[in-house]
Design brief:
By secondary structure, this protein is mainly alpha-helical. The protein has a single domain, classed as Na+/H+ antiporter like fold. It is built from 15 helices and no strands.
Length: 344
């Protein structure tokens, strides 16, 4: 299998930061460049997203409410309880990184891509993943304050925190929406250009975060077993949320296409939003590199498992998500579909 260039670039950035971290004036200049780069990133995403797409998908309010509950209620709660169970096993910074992973918005590109591949409700996936990131500019800081408490150097001034998020993320996004009429067609015709810019900014943030941690000696006590256990926790969280999405969608009576959108939008977490938000939320925290590790690991795990799951759903298109229930009505429908008599 061909290696992912983006994954290799992130690994190279992390490795280079371990050997030659940016420090002093270079680190300050890098932080300034990343701040501007993140603002441009959200401007471009705003310009790329047609306002009509958001309006079109807003009608499925029950489905959106369900996915929001998965993203900002169930996932944060599961991540928080998991982190508490890992107190004697994982370092504090990695446990806090798991909690931070739980409060992030849905990933836009992978949520939509896998929903398309699995033949799900694409307009809802586009609308919700974009809306989740907009809502996340407020919800994520609030949940960080609520769940982190006094455990780490999380920002305490809520009004200052939200104003920073609004100024650096939401305002560029709104300006991008205004500019959509001029930029939208270009970005739609050149999706690779936007994707490459996203990945470049993320690689830069990884280098800056790991540089900060290296300069302060944060990595000295980290063990390989910590990384393996963190990856296992990320996989378990993904499996739990995906199963909850599938079972919840079936219980609420959503059609298959909507259930697929809920499955992928509810279980995906955004690396593209998570790291830029961390740059703001933990601007003075020396442990940013460790906090970012669960997000990076989860991103790769969700892509690998998501690809397998999407292909399985395509093959099993006639079956509902989750385990089939052998109810009387289901058996009757199967008999009718196969042309069988009642006595067969």
């Amino acid at each position: 299998m061909r290696p992912d260039p983006f994954l290799l670039a992130m690994a190279a950035a992390a490795g280079f930061a371990l050997v030659a971290p940016a420090s002093g004036n270079a680190a300050a200049a890098l932080d300034s460049v990343m701040t501007v780069g993140v603002a441009i990133l959200f401007f471009l995403h705003g310009a790329a997203l047609a306002p009509s797409v958001i309006v079109k998908g807003m009608g499925h309010w029950r489905l959106h409410a369900f996915i929001l509950c998965l993203t900002y209620v169930l996932f944060p709660a599961a991540a928080w309880f998991t982190a508490q169970m890992m107190i004697s096993v994982l370092p504090q910074e990695l446990r806090l990184g798991i909690i931070y992973l739980g409060v992030l918005p849905s990933a836009v590109s992978s949520s939509v891509a896998f929903t398309v591949l699995a033949k799900g409700n694409v307009p809802v996936a586009v609308c919700h993943s974009a809306g989740s990131n907009i809502v996340g500019m407020v919800f994520t800081p609030l949940l960080v304050i609520l769940l982190f408490g006094a455990q780490t150097q999380a920002p305490a001034d809520l009004s200052h925190l939200i104003s920073d998020v609004m100024l650096q993320l939401l305002l560029p996004f709104i300006l991008g929406q205004i500019a959509h009429r001029w930029w939208g067609a270009f970005l739609a015709c050149h999706p690779r250009w936007l994707s490459n810019y996203d990945q470049t900014i993320i690689v830069g943030i990884v280098f800056a975060a790991f540089s900060r941690s290296t300069a302060l000696g944060i990595w000295d006590g980290l063990r390989v077993t910590d990384l393996v256990l963190t990856a296992g926790v990320c996989t378990a969280l993904l499996a739990f949320i995906a199963a909850s999405a599938a079972l919840g969608a079936r219980w609420l009576g959503f059609p298959r296409e909507d259930a697929i959108a809920a499955l992928f939008c509810g279980s995906k977490k955004s690396l593209a939003s998570g790291l830029p938000l961390a740059q703001i939320l933990f601007a003075t925290n020396p442990n940013l590199g460790l906090l970012a590790l669960p997000i990076i690991l989860y991103n790769q795990i969700q892509i690998l498992i998501g690809a397998v799951l999407a292909r399985w759903l395509v093959r099993e298109k006639a079956a509902p998500i989750g385990e089939k229930r052998l109810t009387f009505s289901w058996c009757r429908r199967e008999r009718e579909r196969l042309g069988m008599s009642k006595n067969s």
